[in-house]
Prior knowledge:
Strand content: under 5%
Largest sheet: 3 strands, antiparallel
Strand order of the largest sheet: 4-3-5
Shape: elongated
Number of strands: 5
Helix content: 55-70%
Radius of gyration: 40 Å
Order of helices and strands: HEEHHHHHHHHHHHHHHHHHHEEEHHHH
Amino acid sequence: MIRLIVYLLILAGIAFGVAWIADRPGALTVDWQGWHLETSVLVAFSALLVLVAVAILGWSVLRLVLRSPDLLTGSLRNRRANRGWAAISRGLIAVGTGDVSGARRAASDAERLIGREPLTQLLAAQAAQLAGDTAGAERAFQAMTQTASTRLLGLRGLHVEARRRGDADAAQAAAEEAAELEPGLIWAADAVIESRCLTGDFDGALAMLEREAAHGGLDRAAHRRRRAVLLAAQAQAQELTDPATAREKAVEAAKLAPTLVPAAEIAGRLLGAAGDSRKAAKILEAAFATTPHPDLAETYLHLRTGDSVRERLKRMRALTARMPSHPESVMALASAAIDAQDFATARSVLAPLLDAPTQRICLLMAELEAAEHNDVGKAREWTARAVRAPRDPAWVADGFVAERWGPISPITGKLDAFVWKVPPGVAASPVLEHEAERVRAAIQAAIEAQLPAPAVVAAAPVEEPAVIEAVAVAPEPVDPVPVAPTLPPAVRAAPSDVIAMPNLPDDPGPEAASFLEESEPKAGATSRPPFGV
Length: 533
């Protein structure tokens, strides 16, 4: 619209000028070298305009003729470049569709037509990766590192290739160099942090985290969470060697991430051991109110070692009051009630969960039947139900099930990978070992209570029930996952920390039968002490 208005204004100006000259006729006379020219001003002005137009046209033609070789060369160059970019487009599409031969052919055409452009080098590397040519891909990425504009891209490719072939040193070197060039680069900073965690260098990981945050690589929430995870890992590693430092780090981690269960649990336990029960209780209560967890409940229950079982039950009521219907609250309160012999409370809180009980609920009911009524039959019935009951949550990272939380995944090395959830592909979670120990003790006590007094003295301990053994510590894995051998002691799980379970049949069958028939202890059998003691 604006162009049209301007165009009309120009036409109006020209028309006004022509009309103005036409309204003022005049004569123009020229005498030169015997030539006498006489014409009007309008005709002379028009002739001048035509002469200027002819001069401009002649100059344009002459310039075109003089520049024709350059124009022809440029046209051929542009045509070649267009064909090269078209080859890059075809190559990227071929890579996306998995066409190995098409990707290689397009990469060769692109390099021949437009040379070693960044996208040409990237296409060549991706075509080599698609074809499984690791050496070719590494050569392409190595070539990229020689140019400033593609150096970070080349380092990323070298890092990925090194991780694929299991060369941790080369992967770390590429990530370190990339992080040095660009500290805010997320993949490089994360790779450096994870590699330092694998070697137990949590101080170095924290330093890299702060550099990443300072250069805008992380938002505030992500920075606080990751810092809390690393501080909790430091506290876990130093808990036995330097309790005071571990306590400070755990408290800071709990402040940064109140929902991080390991941080709150370690902080509460160390503060309680130092005599600061009030602060420990505050941290544990805040964490349990948002993320109920059995470790938090166990630490809170034994916060003061001199308390009686009734006092512990009262404290557990206060802890679970904010989320009374959560399964973890129910199980924690029921366990404390059984210890205090308040069996009515235990039954009332467990009742809503008995329609679809999990394995831990079944074991708690078995313990309750044995402790309250000395009913070994019902206790065995509940332990048999535990075999095919739904599983309970455990610490899981990339399919790896562990009894203790860790800062990184032992499979992929990812930071903050452990999640409290129902583990896939295993029959039971490691936390059941504690519940199974309680059931064994309750059934043993019930059997001894049913025997005559002289027989009680001579009675041998009841054998660990086969059903409880199947639920708590099965011997063979369903889908074994290798643990990374490079894990440091601070984050490597002990053999007993990793529980891998076999697929159990829907019908307990022989396991339940053996549980009912066997009465002698296994030779050399040992059991873990109750969790939290």
